[in-house]
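tool=predict chain=A
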Amino acid sequence: MTIKNKNHFFTSLIVLANIGLITSMSTVPVLAEKQIFNAAAIFSDHMVLQGDKNVSVWGKSPAKATITVEFSGQEKSCVADGRGKWKVVLDPMPACSEGKQMTLSCRKGSDKTELTFQDVVVGEVWLCSGQSNMEMTVGQAKNAPKEIAAAN
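tool=predict ok
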Protein backbone atom coordinates (compact mmCIF):
# COMPACT_ATOMS: atom_id res chain seq x y z
CA MET A 1 0.00 0.00 0.00
CA THR A 2 1.39 3.37 -0.97
CA ILE A 3 0.49 6.35 1.17
CA LYS A 4 0.64 9.63 -0.65
CA ASN A 5 -0.33 11.84 2.27
CA LYS A 6 1.01 10.43 5.56
CA ASN A 7 -0.60 13.18 7.66
CA HIS A 8 -4.02 12.39 6.20
CA PHE A 9 -3.49 8.67 6.85
CA PHE A 10 -2.56 9.15 10.52
CA THR A 11 -5.38 11.66 11.06
CA SER A 12 -7.82 9.09 9.67
CA LEU A 13 -6.43 6.40 12.00
CA ILE A 14 -6.89 8.68 15.00
CA VAL A 15 -10.49 9.49 14.00
CA LEU A 16 -11.29 5.81 13.42
CA ALA A 17 -9.74 4.88 16.77
CA ASN A 18 -11.76 7.58 18.55
CA ILE A 19 -15.05 6.33 17.16
CA GLY A 20 -14.22 2.75 18.01
CA LEU A 21 -13.65 1.31 14.54
CA ILE A 22 -10.08 0.40 15.37
CA THR A 23 -9.34 -1.24 18.70
CA SER A 24 -6.13 -2.25 20.31
CA MET A 25 -5.14 -5.87 20.71
CA SER A 26 -5.76 -5.72 24.46
CA THR A 27 -8.80 -7.42 25.94
CA VAL A 28 -11.73 -5.09 26.54
CA PRO A 29 -14.30 -6.23 29.09
CA VAL A 30 -17.73 -6.71 27.55
CA LEU A 31 -20.53 -5.07 29.50
CA ALA A 32 -23.25 -7.46 30.57
CA GLU A 33 -26.62 -7.05 28.92
CA LYS A 34 -28.68 -4.49 30.83
CA GLN A 35 -31.00 -6.41 33.12
CA ILE A 36 -34.38 -4.72 33.12
CA PHE A 37 -37.54 -5.42 35.08
CA ASN A 38 -40.70 -3.52 34.35
CA ALA A 39 -44.42 -3.83 33.87
CA ALA A 40 -46.08 -2.74 30.65
CA ALA A 41 -46.58 1.04 30.39
CA ILE A 42 -50.33 0.69 31.00
CA PHE A 43 -49.64 -0.09 34.69
CA SER A 44 -49.11 2.85 37.05
CA ASP A 45 -50.05 4.42 40.36
CA HIS A 46 -53.76 5.35 40.66
CA MET A 47 -54.86 2.76 38.09
CA VAL A 48 -58.22 0.98 37.97
CA LEU A 49 -58.25 -2.79 37.40
CA GLN A 50 -61.31 -4.40 35.87
CA GLY A 51 -63.53 -5.97 38.50
CA ASP A 52 -65.11 -9.44 38.31
CA LYS A 53 -62.75 -10.57 35.53
CA ASN A 54 -59.30 -12.15 35.41
CA VAL A 55 -56.68 -9.39 35.36
CA SER A 56 -53.47 -9.91 33.38
CA VAL A 57 -50.29 -8.16 34.53
CA TRP A 58 -47.34 -8.40 32.15
CA GLY A 59 -43.95 -6.93 31.36
CA LYS A 60 -40.26 -7.58 30.74
CA SER A 61 -37.50 -8.98 32.94
CA PRO A 62 -34.27 -10.92 32.69
CA ALA A 63 -34.84 -14.27 30.94
CA LYS A 64 -36.03 -17.11 33.18
CA ALA A 65 -36.53 -14.80 36.20
CA THR A 66 -39.33 -15.59 38.65
CA ILE A 67 -41.96 -12.84 38.77
CA THR A 68 -44.44 -12.50 41.64
CA VAL A 69 -47.42 -10.14 41.72
CA GLU A 70 -49.09 -9.40 45.06
CA PHE A 71 -52.38 -7.53 45.20
CA SER A 72 -55.52 -7.58 47.34
CA GLY A 73 -54.66 -10.80 49.16
CA GLN A 74 -53.50 -12.62 46.03
CA GLU A 75 -49.95 -13.74 45.28
CA LYS A 76 -49.35 -15.16 41.79
CA SER A 77 -46.03 -16.11 40.18
CA CYS A 78 -44.63 -17.09 36.81
CA VAL A 79 -41.25 -17.61 35.14
CA ALA A 80 -40.24 -15.26 32.31
CA ASP A 81 -39.57 -16.86 28.96
CA GLY A 82 -36.18 -16.93 27.21
CA ARG A 83 -36.69 -13.38 25.91
CA GLY A 84 -37.75 -12.02 29.31
CA LYS A 85 -41.48 -11.70 28.60
CA TRP A 86 -43.76 -12.58 31.50
CA LYS A 87 -47.47 -12.55 32.36
CA VAL A 88 -49.30 -13.22 35.62
CA VAL A 89 -53.09 -13.58 35.76
CA LEU A 90 -54.90 -12.45 38.92
CA ASP A 91 -58.23 -14.03 39.86
CA PRO A 92 -61.43 -11.97 39.52
CA MET A 93 -61.90 -9.38 42.27
CA PRO A 94 -65.01 -7.48 43.37
CA ALA A 95 -65.11 -3.72 42.91
CA CYS A 96 -63.32 -1.85 45.69
CA SER A 97 -62.77 1.90 45.83
CA GLU A 98 -60.13 1.60 48.58
CA GLY A 99 -56.72 2.25 47.03
CA LYS A 100 -54.30 -0.61 47.65
CA GLN A 101 -50.66 -1.31 46.85
CA MET A 102 -49.65 -3.72 44.10
CA THR A 103 -46.16 -5.18 44.45
CA LEU A 104 -44.28 -6.87 41.63
CA SER A 105 -41.03 -8.66 42.38
CA CYS A 106 -38.42 -10.17 40.12
CA ARG A 107 -36.01 -12.77 41.44
CA LYS A 108 -33.13 -14.25 39.48
CA GLY A 109 -30.48 -16.03 41.48
CA SER A 110 -29.68 -13.90 44.50
CA ASP A 111 -30.89 -10.67 42.83
CA LYS A 112 -34.34 -9.33 43.71
CA THR A 113 -35.99 -6.19 42.36
CA GLU A 114 -39.39 -4.82 43.36
CA LEU A 115 -41.83 -2.41 41.74
CA THR A 116 -44.80 -0.97 43.60
CA PHE A 117 -47.92 0.76 42.37
CA GLN A 118 -49.85 2.86 44.89
CA ASP A 119 -53.56 3.64 45.14
CA VAL A 120 -54.75 0.82 42.86
CA VAL A 121 -58.52 0.28 42.86
CA VAL A 122 -60.82 -2.33 41.30
CA GLY A 123 -63.93 -1.35 39.37
CA GLU A 124 -65.41 -0.80 35.94
CA VAL A 125 -62.97 0.10 33.17
CA TRP A 126 -64.45 1.67 30.07
CA LEU A 127 -62.54 2.67 26.97
CA CYS A 128 -64.38 5.32 24.98
CA SER A 129 -63.70 6.86 21.64
CA GLY A 130 -65.49 9.23 19.38
CA GLN A 131 -65.60 12.78 18.25
CA SER A 132 -68.33 15.38 18.75
CA ASN A 133 -70.71 12.82 20.26
CA MET A 134 -68.32 12.53 23.23
CA GLU A 135 -69.07 16.16 24.12
CA MET A 136 -72.85 15.75 24.25
CA THR A 137 -74.35 15.82 27.75
CA VAL A 138 -77.47 13.93 28.83
CA GLY A 139 -79.27 17.27 29.05
CA GLN A 140 -78.80 17.66 25.29
CA ALA A 141 -80.20 14.21 24.47
CA LYS A 142 -83.59 13.60 22.90
CA ASN A 143 -86.18 13.24 25.69
CA ALA A 144 -83.63 14.52 28.22
CA PRO A 145 -86.04 14.97 31.19
CA LYS A 146 -87.36 11.40 30.72
CA GLU A 147 -83.81 9.96 30.42
CA ILE A 148 -82.64 11.83 33.53
CA ALA A 149 -85.67 10.65 35.56
CA ALA A 150 -85.05 7.02 34.48
CA ALA A 151 -81.33 7.07 35.32
CA ASN A 152 -80.18 5.24 38.42
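The first strand starts at residue 38 and ends at 39. The radius of gyration is 28 Å.
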